[in-house]
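Need C-alpha cells for this chain, all 253 residues.
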Amino acid sequence: MNPKKIIETAMLKRYWIKLIFRVVIFVGFLVIYLKDRALLGYLLNYEFHLGIIDYGITPIHALWLIFMVMMVSHLIPNKRKTMALEKSLEQSYISVEGYSREELFRFVQDQNVKAWKVMLLWLSFNAVFGILYLAEVIADVDLLMLTVFYFLSDYICILFFCPFQKFIMKNRCCVNCRIYDWGHFMMFTPMLFIKNFFSWSLFFTSLVVLIHWEILYAKYPERFWSQSNKVLQCATCKDKTCQVKRRIQGEVG
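Here are the C-alpha cells for all 253 residues:
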C-alpha cells in the first residue's frame, strides 16, 4: 500500500519555515564561532547595554531578542499557538463526556514519573558540560554554541525524531506531549553556568515558562489527556505536525 500524501497544514508549513530559520541561525553562529571565537566570547561577556552603545546591535543582542520574544510568546495568549500549547488553555478544552477521573489520575501519575526521568536525564547530561566549563576545559562560547544547537534540535525533535518521546514519554505526538513546554528550559540549561545578563535572563525566563506550564498541568490535568480532551484526539487535530515523524517511524496511514 502506498503511503498517504503528507497534508501540508498551515501549522506544518509554519514549522518548516521556523526550522529553516533555526538552521540559518545555527549556521550563522557556527561560522562566527569558527572564524572569530575570541570576538564572540568577548561580545558574550561584554556589559549587555554598553555593547549596544559601543558596537551597535551585535549578533548576541539579536539572538537574545529572538530567544526572549520566543519565550514571552508562550506566556501570552495568542491565536497563533500550536495545539500542543493551546491544550493548556480553558478556551481550547473540549471535554470527553463520561471520562474516568480514576484513569485520569493514573495517567497523570505515569506521566509525572516519566517527566521526572526526563528531567534527571537532562540535568545529568548537561552537568557534564557544566563540570567541563568549571574545569576550564570548555569556555563560554562553547556553551553558547551548545544552546544554539539545542535551539535547532528542538524543531528536529518536533518534526523528525524525539528521543524523549520515543524512549521515555511514549506519547503519541507533540500535541499529546506532557513536557512540550519544557523546550525553553532545556534549551537554556547551559546558560545557567555563565554569570552575565545575557545568559541568566534567558535561563530564568525559561524557568518561568516551565513553572507556568507545570502549574497549569497540576491544576487542569484533564486538558492534557486525549481521553478527557477531544482536542488532543487525532480525529480533531488540525496541526498534523506529526506526519513526517510518524512516516520515518513506519507509522504510515
